[in-house]
Amino acid sequence: MWSTGSHASDQNDGRPSAAGFSLNVIARPEIDAVLAKPLAALTPRTIVDPGALRRELARIRTRGFAVTRHEARQDVGGVAAAVVDGAGRPVGALSVTLPMHRLTGDIVSRYGALVPNEAARLTATLAGAGVPLPPADPRRS
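and the corresponding structure tokens:
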């Protein structure tokens, strides 16, 4: 599954968004096919070099979450982690998307710790591991 972007109207391969990156780390069989074609740049910061993209996907795999800055849209960045089903197939992503002036190093560190943990809880629930999700805490909004 190579994601299709954040919006139904997006006409890209899903790679430049944080959510797209987080899903594409898991969708390994299709990566070679996507990288065999020219990659479109949505902004000047979009990764279009296949080697650079493979290196970024490896960093995301190691880190456990994706971070983007100006790659899918100018002045927008995000932190995301994949949600997978019981077979390990990507079914979605948990993403925090912010204007770049708010995406500080502290925010990336904070959400880089929270987002993968919450994505893992969603994954466990989808996989039938019986992990109930508690009601949302309104103080965390």
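(Above: one complete record from the training split.) The CA atoms of residues 65 and 113 lie 9 Å apart.
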